[in-house]
Amino acid sequence: MAYFAALLSRDGGPWRPREVDVEGHDDVDALAQAMRRAAKGDALALLLLEHEDEWFAVVRAEDADDPQVFVSSAAGAAASPYAAALGYDPELAEDEEDDPAGDTEILADLGTEPDELLRLAGDDGPDVSEAVTALAEKAGFGELLDDMR
Q: Looking at the record, which segments are called Disordered (predicted)?
């Protein structure tokens, strides 16, 4: 299984690429803490995670706020090695629907409204890498994401 993960952060200025290990976190709060540490004091950190052409996830960690998560496939995320870090119980993976799940407003202030996020995550939307690229372009870090791939 091939995964791609990109962490980007900013504090009012330009987006900066960062590195974070997504594996090994017991829950989304632990992942958010790792994202905040990797962001080196930036107020906003976004993690974009792709699994081949099957599904994607967005995790947002902002200052001390609760982390936000959106996945394009709850079943895919729950069956992945990152299930716990994304807020899923891997033992209940078979109970999850193959539908988008999570906070649809996660990127609204960065140019992707909930209905557009659901369209990009849906079966009739673009493939996973194109969907993530569209999210990145609307947020203003499309070229940076391309450089990270």
A: 89-113
